[in-house]
Protein backbone atom coordinates (compact mmCIF):
# COMPACT_ATOMS: atom_id res chain seq x y z
CA UNK A 1 0.00 0.00 0.00
CA UNK A 2 1.28 3.47 -0.89
CA UNK A 3 0.21 6.88 0.37
CA UNK A 4 0.44 10.36 -1.12
CA UNK A 5 -0.38 13.39 1.02
CA UNK A 6 -0.58 16.93 -0.37
CA UNK A 7 -0.76 19.80 2.11
CA UNK A 8 -2.11 23.01 0.59
CA UNK A 9 -3.00 26.34 2.10
CA UNK A 10 -6.64 25.29 2.63
CA UNK A 11 -6.98 21.52 2.31
CA UNK A 12 -4.85 18.45 2.88
CA UNK A 13 -5.47 15.66 0.37
CA UNK A 14 -4.59 12.00 0.88
CA UNK A 15 -4.51 9.39 -1.89
CA UNK A 16 -4.16 5.71 -1.05
CA UNK A 17 -3.10 3.14 -3.63
CA UNK A 18 -4.06 -0.29 -2.38
CA UNK A 19 -2.20 -3.49 -3.22
CA UNK A 20 -4.93 -4.52 -5.67
CA UNK A 21 -4.48 -1.27 -7.63
CA UNK A 22 -7.58 0.51 -6.31
CA UNK A 23 -7.11 4.21 -5.56
CA UNK A 24 -9.06 6.14 -2.95
CA UNK A 25 -8.89 9.85 -2.09
CA UNK A 26 -9.64 11.67 1.15
CA UNK A 27 -9.66 15.34 2.09
CA UNK A 28 -9.41 17.22 5.38
CA UNK A 29 -8.85 20.90 6.25
CA UNK A 30 -5.25 22.05 6.53
CA UNK A 31 -4.26 23.20 10.02
CA UNK A 32 -1.90 26.17 9.39
CA UNK A 33 -0.60 26.30 12.96
CA UNK A 34 0.54 22.67 12.69
CA UNK A 35 0.12 21.21 9.18
CA UNK A 36 1.11 17.72 10.36
CA UNK A 37 -2.18 17.64 12.30
CA UNK A 38 -3.96 18.01 8.96
CA UNK A 39 -1.98 15.09 7.47
CA UNK A 40 -2.81 12.85 10.43
CA UNK A 41 -6.46 13.96 10.30
CA UNK A 42 -6.64 12.86 6.65
CA UNK A 43 -5.18 9.48 7.63
CA UNK A 44 -7.68 9.18 10.47
CA UNK A 45 -10.54 9.93 8.06
CA UNK A 46 -9.24 7.24 5.72
CA UNK A 47 -8.89 4.73 8.56
CA UNK A 48 -12.44 5.41 9.74
CA UNK A 49 -13.80 5.04 6.20
CA UNK A 50 -11.94 1.77 5.62
CA UNK A 51 -12.90 0.36 9.01
CA UNK A 52 -9.33 0.24 10.29
CA UNK A 53 -7.57 1.83 13.21
CA UNK A 54 -4.96 4.46 12.36
CA UNK A 55 -1.98 2.32 13.36
CA UNK A 56 -3.12 -0.60 11.20
CA UNK A 57 -3.60 1.64 8.17
CA UNK A 58 -0.22 3.35 8.51
CA UNK A 59 1.52 0.07 9.29
CA UNK A 60 0.36 -1.35 5.96
CA UNK A 61 2.08 1.40 4.00
CA UNK A 62 5.36 0.94 2.11
CA UNK A 63 5.89 4.57 1.10
CA UNK A 64 4.54 8.02 1.86
CA UNK A 65 5.01 10.65 -0.85
CA UNK A 66 4.40 14.11 0.57
CA UNK A 67 3.87 17.36 -1.32
CA UNK A 68 3.45 20.70 0.40
CA UNK A 69 3.12 24.40 -0.38
CA UNK A 70 4.70 25.28 2.97
CA UNK A 71 7.96 26.52 1.44
CA UNK A 72 6.46 28.58 -1.39
CA UNK A 73 3.80 30.03 0.91
CA UNK A 74 6.53 31.17 3.31
CA UNK A 75 8.28 32.93 0.42
CA UNK A 76 5.08 34.57 -0.82
CA UNK A 77 3.99 35.75 2.62
CA UNK A 78 7.47 36.85 3.79
CA UNK A 79 7.57 34.46 6.74
CA UNK A 80 10.97 32.90 6.05
CA UNK A 81 13.82 33.15 8.54
CA UNK A 82 15.77 36.34 9.13
CA UNK A 83 18.76 35.63 6.89
CA UNK A 84 22.22 37.15 6.47
CA UNK A 85 24.39 36.90 3.35
CA UNK A 86 28.19 36.66 3.55
CA UNK A 87 30.04 37.83 0.43
CA UNK A 88 33.61 38.37 -0.70
CA UNK A 89 34.85 41.84 0.32
CA UNK A 90 34.17 44.36 -2.42
CA UNK A 91 31.29 42.38 -3.93
CA UNK A 92 28.31 42.86 -1.61
CA UNK A 93 25.71 43.97 -4.15
CA UNK A 94 25.05 40.87 -6.25
CA UNK A 95 21.41 40.65 -5.09
CA UNK A 96 20.94 44.34 -5.90
CA UNK A 97 22.62 44.34 -9.33
CA UNK A 98 21.29 40.90 -10.35
CA UNK A 99 22.21 40.12 -13.95
CA UNK A 100 21.72 43.63 -15.27
CA UNK A 101 18.64 43.01 -17.43
CA UNK A 102 14.95 43.71 -17.08
CA UNK A 103 11.82 41.61 -17.26
CA UNK A 104 11.89 40.58 -20.91
CA UNK A 105 8.11 41.04 -21.24
CA UNK A 106 7.74 44.30 -19.31
CA UNK A 107 10.77 46.56 -19.28
CA UNK A 108 9.13 49.27 -17.19
CA UNK A 109 8.30 47.01 -14.27
CA UNK A 110 10.70 47.71 -11.37
CA UNK A 111 12.81 44.97 -9.90
CA UNK A 112 11.73 43.57 -6.55
CA UNK A 113 13.74 44.35 -3.45
CA UNK A 114 16.78 42.07 -2.97
CA UNK A 115 15.92 38.83 -1.22
CA UNK A 116 18.35 39.60 1.62
CA UNK A 117 18.39 43.30 2.58
CA UNK A 118 21.62 45.14 1.91
CA UNK A 119 21.79 45.87 5.65
CA UNK A 120 22.11 42.12 6.32
CA UNK A 121 24.83 41.55 3.71
CA UNK A 122 28.35 41.35 5.16
CA UNK A 123 31.73 41.46 3.43
CA UNK A 124 34.38 38.86 4.23
CA UNK A 125 38.07 39.67 3.53
CA UNK A 126 39.17 36.86 1.20
CA UNK A 127 39.58 36.20 -2.50
CA UNK A 128 39.87 33.09 -4.63
CA UNK A 129 40.75 33.46 -8.31
CA UNK A 130 38.97 31.89 -11.27
CA UNK A 131 41.49 29.05 -11.43
CA UNK A 132 41.10 28.26 -7.74
CA UNK A 133 44.22 30.10 -6.62
CA UNK A 134 44.09 31.96 -3.30
CA UNK A 135 44.53 35.65 -4.11
CA UNK A 136 43.81 36.83 -0.56
CA UNK A 137 43.82 34.50 2.44
CA UNK A 138 40.66 34.26 4.53
CA UNK A 139 40.70 36.64 7.50
CA UNK A 140 39.31 34.31 10.13
CA UNK A 141 39.40 36.91 12.90
CA UNK A 142 37.14 39.17 10.83
CA UNK A 143 34.81 36.26 10.11
CA UNK A 144 34.43 35.71 13.85
CA UNK A 145 33.70 39.44 14.35
CA UNK A 146 31.02 39.26 11.65
CA UNK A 147 29.51 36.21 13.32
CA UNK A 148 29.29 38.13 16.59
CA UNK A 149 27.34 40.83 14.74
CA UNK A 150 25.01 38.17 13.38
CA UNK A 151 24.41 36.93 16.91
CA UNK A 152 23.66 40.48 18.09
CA UNK A 153 21.20 40.93 15.18
CA UNK A 154 19.48 37.63 16.09
CA UNK A 155 20.04 36.19 12.63
CA UNK A 156 18.16 32.90 12.11
CA UNK A 157 19.98 31.58 9.01
CA UNK A 158 23.16 32.39 7.07
CA UNK A 159 23.90 32.17 3.34
CA UNK A 160 27.58 32.04 2.32
CA UNK A 161 28.44 32.86 -1.29
CA UNK A 162 32.09 33.73 -1.96
CA UNK A 163 33.68 34.44 -5.34
CA UNK A 164 34.91 31.38 -7.26
CA UNK A 165 34.11 28.97 -4.45
CA UNK A 166 33.03 26.58 -7.20
CA UNK A 167 36.70 26.16 -8.22
CA UNK A 168 38.11 26.18 -4.70
CA UNK A 169 35.62 25.85 -1.81
CA UNK A 170 38.23 26.03 0.98
CA UNK A 171 37.21 29.50 2.21
CA UNK A 172 33.49 28.72 2.16
CA UNK A 173 34.10 25.48 4.00
CA UNK A 174 36.12 27.26 6.67
CA UNK A 175 33.46 29.94 7.08
CA UNK A 176 30.94 27.13 7.54
CA UNK A 177 33.11 25.59 10.26
CA UNK A 178 33.39 28.94 12.04
CA UNK A 179 29.63 29.40 11.87
CA UNK A 180 29.09 25.99 13.44
CA UNK A 181 31.61 26.79 16.15
CA UNK A 182 30.55 30.34 17.02
CA UNK A 183 26.87 30.34 16.01
CA UNK A 184 25.65 26.83 16.89
CA UNK A 185 22.05 26.02 16.16
CA UNK A 186 21.77 28.59 13.34
CA UNK A 187 21.62 26.80 9.96
CA UNK A 188 23.71 27.92 7.02
CA UNK A 189 24.02 27.13 3.31
CA UNK A 190 27.28 27.13 1.33
CA UNK A 191 26.83 28.14 -2.30
CA UNK A 192 29.35 25.74 -3.84
CA UNK A 193 27.58 22.77 -2.26
CA UNK A 194 24.04 23.85 -3.17
CA UNK A 195 24.36 25.33 -6.66
CA UNK A 196 27.85 25.25 -8.20
CA UNK A 197 26.93 27.40 -11.20
CA UNK A 198 29.04 30.03 -12.93
CA UNK A 199 26.29 32.66 -12.75
CA UNK A 200 27.02 34.65 -9.58
CA UNK A 201 23.52 36.06 -9.05
CA UNK A 202 21.85 32.70 -9.48
CA UNK A 203 24.24 31.05 -7.06
CA UNK A 204 23.84 33.82 -4.46
CA UNK A 205 20.05 34.08 -4.71
CA UNK A 206 19.48 30.32 -4.54
CA UNK A 207 21.82 30.09 -1.55
CA UNK A 208 19.96 32.87 0.26
CA UNK A 209 16.57 31.30 -0.44
CA UNK A 210 17.70 27.86 0.68
CA UNK A 211 19.17 29.17 3.93
CA UNK A 212 16.05 31.20 4.70
CA UNK A 213 13.86 28.10 4.42
CA UNK A 214 15.98 25.80 6.57
CA UNK A 215 14.61 26.68 10.05
CA UNK A 216 11.01 26.30 8.87
CA UNK A 217 11.37 23.23 6.66
CA UNK A 218 13.82 21.30 8.84
CA UNK A 219 11.39 21.56 11.75
CA UNK A 220 8.40 20.72 9.55
CA UNK A 221 9.95 17.72 7.80
CA UNK A 222 11.28 16.35 11.05
CA UNK A 223 7.83 16.64 12.55
CA UNK A 224 6.18 14.89 9.59
CA UNK A 225 8.50 11.90 9.71
CA UNK A 226 8.60 11.62 13.50
CA UNK A 227 4.85 11.82 13.99
CA UNK A 228 3.73 9.51 11.18
CA UNK A 229 6.23 6.93 12.43
CA UNK A 230 4.98 7.37 15.98
CA UNK A 231 1.46 6.73 14.65
CA UNK A 232 2.54 3.44 13.06
CA UNK A 233 4.12 4.12 9.64
CA UNK A 234 7.28 2.07 8.93
CA UNK A 235 7.96 2.77 5.23
CA UNK A 236 10.02 5.46 3.47
CA UNK A 237 9.03 9.12 3.52
CA UNK A 238 9.58 11.03 0.28
CA UNK A 239 9.06 14.69 -0.62
CA UNK A 240 7.86 15.86 -4.04
CA UNK A 241 10.42 18.24 -5.55
CA UNK A 242 9.98 21.23 -7.84
CA UNK A 243 10.63 19.13 -10.95
CA UNK A 244 7.94 16.58 -10.10
CA UNK A 245 10.37 13.96 -8.79
CA UNK A 246 10.92 12.84 -5.21
CA UNK A 247 13.72 12.95 -2.65
CA UNK A 248 14.03 11.38 0.78
CA UNK A 249 12.71 13.75 3.44
CA UNK A 250 16.12 13.86 5.14
CA UNK A 251 17.78 15.05 1.92
CA UNK A 252 15.19 17.80 1.51
CA UNK A 253 15.84 19.06 5.04
CA UNK A 254 19.47 19.66 3.97
CA UNK A 255 18.41 21.59 0.83
CA UNK A 256 14.78 22.78 1.15
CA UNK A 257 15.00 24.96 -1.96
CA UNK A 258 14.26 21.80 -3.94
CA UNK A 259 10.65 21.74 -2.68
CA UNK A 260 9.61 25.34 -3.36
CA UNK A 261 7.28 24.05 -6.10
CA UNK A 262 6.47 20.83 -4.27
CA UNK A 263 2.75 21.57 -4.01
CA UNK A 264 1.93 22.41 -7.66
CA UNK A 265 4.74 20.40 -9.30
CA UNK A 266 2.53 17.45 -10.17
CA UNK A 267 -0.25 19.56 -11.75
CA UNK A 268 1.28 19.62 -15.26
CA UNK A 269 1.94 15.86 -15.06
CA UNK A 270 -1.70 15.20 -14.20
CA UNK A 271 -2.86 17.82 -16.71
CA UNK A 272 -0.94 16.14 -19.52
CA UNK A 273 -2.45 12.75 -18.62
CA UNK A 274 -6.05 13.90 -18.46
CA UNK A 275 -5.81 16.17 -21.50
CA UNK A 276 -4.69 13.17 -23.54
CA UNK A 277 -7.25 10.86 -21.93
CA UNK A 278 -10.29 13.15 -22.14
CA UNK A 279 -9.59 15.34 -25.18
CA UNK A 280 -6.77 13.57 -27.11
CA UNK A 281 -4.87 16.86 -26.77
CA UNK A 282 -1.11 17.15 -26.38
CA UNK A 283 -0.91 20.93 -25.80
CA UNK A 284 -2.70 22.29 -22.76
CA UNK A 285 -2.59 25.11 -20.21
CA UNK A 286 -2.79 23.76 -16.65
CA UNK A 287 -3.85 25.91 -13.71
CA UNK A 288 -3.63 25.07 -10.02
CA UNK A 289 -5.66 27.24 -7.66
CA UNK A 290 -4.50 26.99 -4.06
CA UNK A 291 -5.38 28.79 -0.88
CA UNK A 292 -2.38 31.13 -1.16
CA UNK A 293 -1.03 30.97 -4.72
CA UNK A 294 -2.30 30.51 -8.27
CA UNK A 295 0.03 28.51 -10.54
CA UNK A 296 -0.02 28.21 -14.31
CA UNK A 297 1.99 25.70 -16.35
CA UNK A 298 2.13 24.64 -20.00
CA UNK A 299 2.27 21.27 -21.70
CA UNK A 300 3.50 21.73 -25.25
CA UNK A 301 3.22 18.88 -27.76
CA UNK A 302 3.19 16.37 -24.93
CA UNK A 303 6.26 17.78 -23.23
CA UNK A 304 6.49 19.80 -20.02
CA UNK A 305 9.04 22.58 -20.64
CA UNK A 306 11.43 23.41 -17.83
CA UNK A 307 13.55 26.42 -17.01
CA UNK A 308 16.17 27.41 -14.43
CA UNK A 309 14.39 30.74 -13.89
CA UNK A 310 11.24 31.52 -11.96
CA UNK A 311 9.47 34.56 -10.55
CA UNK A 312 7.53 34.23 -7.33
CA UNK A 313 4.84 36.63 -6.21
CA UNK A 314 4.37 39.78 -8.26
CA UNK A 315 7.02 42.43 -7.68
CA UNK A 316 8.01 41.46 -4.17
CA UNK A 317 10.08 38.30 -4.49
CA UNK A 318 12.11 36.78 -7.29
CA UNK A 319 14.61 33.95 -7.78
Summarize the entry for a quick read.
This protein is an alpha/beta fold and 319 residues long. The protein contains ten helices and 16 strands.
Describe the fold and architecture.
The protein has helices at 35-50, 54-59, 70-77, 94-97, 140-152, 170-182, 191-194, 200-230, 249-254, 267-279; strands spanning 2-7, 11-17, 23-29, 63-68, 83-88, 121-124, 127-128, 134-136, 157-161, 188-190, 236-240, 246-248, 284-289, 294-299, 311-312, 317-318. It is α/β, with parallel strands linked by helices. A hairpin with a 5-residue loop joins strand 11 (236-240) and strand 12. The two termini are 38 Å apart.
Helix content: 25-40%
Give the CA-CA distance, first to last residue: 38 Å
Count of discrete alpha- or pi-helical segments spanning 4 or more residues: 10
- What number is the mean pLDDT? 91
Q: Output the strand order for the largest sheet.
A: 3-2-1-4-11-12
Question: SSE order, as H and E?
Answer: EEEHHEHEHEEEHEHEHHEEHHEEEE
Radius of gyration, Cα only, in angstroms?
A: 22 Å
Label the overall shape. globular
Structural class: alpha/beta
Largest sheet: 6 strands, mixed
Strand content: 15-25%
How many strands appear in the DSSP assignment?
Answer: 16
Q: Which regions contain 5 or more consecutive residues with pLDDT less than 50?
A: 315-319
List the helices and strands and how they pair.
Blueprint: E1 2-7, E2 11-17, E3 23-29, H1 35-50, H2 54-59, E4 63-68, H3 70-77, E5 83-88, H4 94-97, E6 121-124, E7 127-128, E8 134-136, H5 140-152, E9 157-161, H6 170-182, E10 188-190, H7 191-194, H8 200-230, E11 236-240, E12 246-248, H9 249-254, H10 267-279, E13 284-289, E14 294-299, E15 311-312, E16 317-318
Parallel strand pairs: 1-4, 4-11, 5-6, 5-9, 9-10
Antiparallel strand pairs: 1-2, 2-3, 7-8, 11-12, 13-14, 15-16
Amino acid sequence: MRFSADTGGTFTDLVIERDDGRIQAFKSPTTPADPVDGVLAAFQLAADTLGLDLEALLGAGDALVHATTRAVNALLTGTTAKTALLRTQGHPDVLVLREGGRDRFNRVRPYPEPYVPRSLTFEIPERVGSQGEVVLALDEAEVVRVIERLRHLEIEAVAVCLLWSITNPAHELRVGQLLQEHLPGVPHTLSHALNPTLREYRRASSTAIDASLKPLMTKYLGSVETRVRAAGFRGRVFMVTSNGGVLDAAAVADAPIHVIRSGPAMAPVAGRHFAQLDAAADTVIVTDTGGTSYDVSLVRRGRIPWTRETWLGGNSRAT
